[in-house]
Write a structure and sequence with these properties.
The complex is a heterotetramer, with two copies of chain A (143 residues) and two copies of chain B (81 residues). Chain A contains three helices and ten strands, in the order E-H-E-E-E-E-H-E-E-E-H-E-E. By secondary structure, chain A is of the alpha+beta class. With 81 residues, chain B is of the alpha+beta class. Classes of the chains: A alpha+beta (143), B alpha+beta (81). Chains in contact: A-B, A-C, A-D, B-C, C-D.
């Protein structure tokens, strides 16, 4: 199980190349989600954003989420890598992955990781708009 | 020892400080910590609180050496919805 | 939109590195599923399998599935890469990916791609077991 | 011209051949194609059929130049359930 906070840009596919567990024939299914910064949010153009976290608590919280997913879906392994700091459009914000014997478990676990992360983990977004900076007030629903 | 108090995001900017310390003898709960640091401003309804990096409530106890944090609702994760 | 049938082993993360669309700030979410050969199926050990397809019809069918997903979830792009021929445990059998503005669409589309592929696309599995070869009679439910 | 008939997977092995051709004048439907190639064996209930690489039914029409295929239920995708 891996949880990492990154202050520099990272390539999700390179991370996965390095991290794929040696499952010895037991892994049938890998589900992955990658969140990327868009240059548009709620109708306004966003040039850059700053993602703040709570060093220590954020990592602890992500570790708890990963442990919950691994236990609940009997995963072979799971991964969260999350950017913080200044982020530009098209850069990866978050990578989650779940490795399981079967696809239903892998999909359910990957979805759980990203939804829990968004609703509970201590991260705060400040967007740089043409008209100035703004803290994002709250996450819109998962939809 | 003392209690370390941390603020994050928009609250950090509003408080004009990221971290302060309090004498542990003056406070017994998270709500009392807030009263000491907020100049009498009532605890905002949607403010989140943590003690030693675990989510806590206003009436959670605090002890000497604890780290208490206040922050706005989380808005993390990907910028995708 | 990309659909490819491969006769040789491939690395799904390298494929994704090469294929990730230049979405110009519009892509917020990528969902990926990778199916890998396990060495165990329905209680018996499997040393190798042969995956047969119908050249022409299989590709056509996968293209239809991809087009359906792109239209239904307004995807920025989608991808299916599928192995055929002799396959060994831990080798990738199938890679699907869906690129979207938001995560709900990306997850739903990736799930659709793999479920439709499994239920409708012309592929047939023959497993090599210690006691000989067997054609797999039918897919067990999606679970 | 003629009608090309293909068999796949376990059916290909059972027929002992992957492909054969028929004179198009002898057959009007997929079911008639099966009768000509199967030595009178009835059409198995779960057999799948395609005409020109699209799924078809036993009563689908076939014409000169068509490619007709017979195969067992598909079992593809990942080996994961």
């Amino acid at each position: 199980m891996i949880v990492e906070i990154r202050t520099a840009p990272f390539d999700p596919w390179q991370e996965l190349s390095r991290r794929t567990p040696d499952a010895g024939g037991r892994c049938g299914a890998t589900a992955v989600f990658v969140g990327t910064m868009r240059d548009f949010n709620e109708g306004v153009s966003v040039r850059e954003m700053f993602l703040e976290h709570y060093p220590g608590m954020t990592e602890k919280h992500l570790e708890t989420i990963v442990e919950e997913a691994v236990a609940r879906w009997e995963l072979l392994d799971a991964l969260i890598v999350h950017r913080v700091g200044q982020i530009r459009p098209d850069e990866t914000i978050v990578l989650v992955a779940a490795w399981a014997a079967h696809r239903a478990e892998a999909f359910a676990a990957a979805r759980y990781l990203i939804e829990e992360l968004k609703s509970r983990a201590p991260f705060w977004k400040k967007e740089s708009l043409p008209q100035g900076e703004r803290w994002v007030a709250k996450n819109t629903p998962a939809g | 020892m003392a209690i370390v108090v941390k603020f994050f995001a928009s609250l950090r900017e509003r408080m004009g400080c990221a971290e302060t310390t309090l004498d542990a003898q003056q406070v017994k709960t998270v709500a009392e910590v807030w009263q000491r640091v907020a100049d009498g401003e009532p605890l905002p309804a949607n403010l989140l609180m943590a003690v030693n990096m675990e989510y806590a409530e206003a009436d959670s106890e605090v002890r000497d050496g604890d780290e208490v944090a206040f922050f706005p609702p989380v808005t993390g994760g990907a910028h995708d919805r």
